[in-house]
């Protein structure tokens, strides 16, 4: 009888519990629609994914994909100084001419007056120029990568974080994403 109880206990211990299957996956990082369309000056930060580089007078402007633009004072090339960061969500490309920074801001094209770079001002916004669909699934991941499906009601996706998810419903393939 004791053996039967022992084996029953061992059986229950190994075969009971959660049916959760955790998988390596990606979860979207959201910001509100209002915050996503703002441009602001922030303290310097590390470059995560370098984009284009512009040199204007003594300043170096370095794009940071999906994040914004780093500003470096290079008046002393022996000792360049990071002076700040212009945050532009969903930014992939930049151009600068006559004190105006042209950039993509998610699906919009914006013109930002940076003559006083610590106080950037959006002077023009052309809406819906770019396809926002590229942010609907994680970039640069192999086929059949699982991720949490995007919920547009939570705001704009500005990035992705690698996590373990319980049975994610979406995954990538050669044609984009599947749900």
Largest sheet: 5 strands, mixed
Low-confidence regions: none
Q: Sketch the topology as an H/E string, one letter per element.
A: HEHEEEEEEEEEEEEE
Number of strands: 14
Report on the structure:
The protein has one domain (22-178). It is 10% helix and 46% strand. The chain contains 2 helices and 14 strands, in the order H-E-H-E-E-E-E-E-E-E-E-E-E-E-E-E. It has helices at 2-15, 33-36; strands at 22-31, 39-42, 50-56, 59-64, 68-73, 81-88, 94-97, 100-105, 108-113, 121-126, 146-147, 156-166, 170-173, 176-178. Strands 12-1-11-13-14 form a 5-stranded mixed sheet. Strands 2-6-5-4-3 form a 5-stranded antiparallel sheet, with no helix packed on it. The chain is elongated and about 80 Å long. The model has no long low-confidence stretch (mean pLDDT 89).
Structure in a nutshell:
With 179 residues, the chain is mainly beta. Helices cover 10% and strands 46% of the residues.
Write the layout of secondary structure elements.
Layout: H1 2-15, E1 22-31, H2 33-36, E2 39-42, E3 50-56, E4 59-64, E5 68-73, E6 81-88, E7 94-97, E8 100-105, E9 108-113, E10 121-126, E11 146-147, E12 156-166, E13 170-173, E14 176-178
Parallel strand pairs: 1-11
Antiparallel strand pairs: 1-12, 2-6, 3-4, 4-5, 5-6, 7-8, 8-9, 9-10, 11-13, 13-14
Protein traits:
179 residues, mainly beta, 5-stranded mixed sheet, 5-stranded antiparallel sheet, 2 helices
